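Exercise 7.
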Amino acid sequence: MRTTLAIDDDVFAYVRAHAERERISIGEALSRLARQGIQASQLPPPATARPKSRYALLPARKEAITSEHVRRLMEQEGI
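Solution. The predicted structure, written as tokens, is:
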């Protein structure tokens, strides 16, 4: 579909650069980016788990944290 749009300069510059990188037309680049935005806005917001305690959880690690690790860090921090 052909139409005339008023697009902010920064948006146009981004779309043009995207089109050049992907070697597609500016119209195709704008359509793809708009579809990505539409799809992203339709996703349900990520569920946030309620904390079970007042202590924050650390991300999973490959190694187990031992009492020795804790003692060593406490000594380093002067606790």
